[in-house]
Amino acid sequence: MSYQGLYEYLLIIELSESVTEKLMQVKKDFHQRYKAPNALNMPHINLCTFTQYKTAESRILSRVRNAADKQDSINVELCNFGCFPSHTIYVNVTSRAQVLELVREVRQATHRMLKPDNDHKPYFISEPHLTICKGLTNEQYEQAWKYMSNLHFYAKFTAQSMLLLRREKGGKYHRVEHFTFKNKKTNVVQGMLF
């Protein structure tokens, strides 16, 4: 089966400029200490990854835009470090409930649109985190976790938007659309019969 025309998408929460700068310093230090090139990726909080044909993009954008229109800003709190054993070090997102509610709204809004076939299923995060570095070797992971588990980190910001990125398989991500949270909840009013 040919998958020509399929793109990889990444939906993320945008960080404030000051938090991005603070995290980039942590990531640069990590890169220098452990020679891990993946640490230099731009910091973000992943909400969803999926693969889809570009022809479906306008419908997906419309649905994600509607979800963003209903979303209120999110107070995000980041505290200390966590890990996925043997390959990833991350910053804990301790204000998980609002982030997971946003993921639920996006999932509900996009429903089956993010699955072009049975081989490409979307992934919605269930454990919000902010990756410092992934794809570590066992040795890098062991050294890094021994050090990072004893460090303290704290930052907080108010997320006002999310961003959809797209890339050709294995390429570099490019911005598709910026979605501002507008807190436009739809009020349902029951009509009268008589």
From TrEMBL:
Q: Does the keyword Zinc-finger apply?
A: no
InterPro entries registered for this protein in UniProt = 2H_phosphoesterase_YjcG-like, Cyclic_Pdiesterase
Q: Which residues form the signal peptide?
A: none
Q: What UniProt keywords apply to this chain's record, in alphabetical order?
A: Ligase
Q: Which GO terms describe its molecular function?
A: ligase activity
Q: Which PANTHER family match?
A: PHOSPHOESTERASE SAOUHSC_00951-RELATED, PHOSPHOESTERASE YJCG-RELATED
Write down what this protein is called.
2'-5' RNA ligase family protein
Q: Which species does the entry assign this protein to?
A: Haoranjiania flava
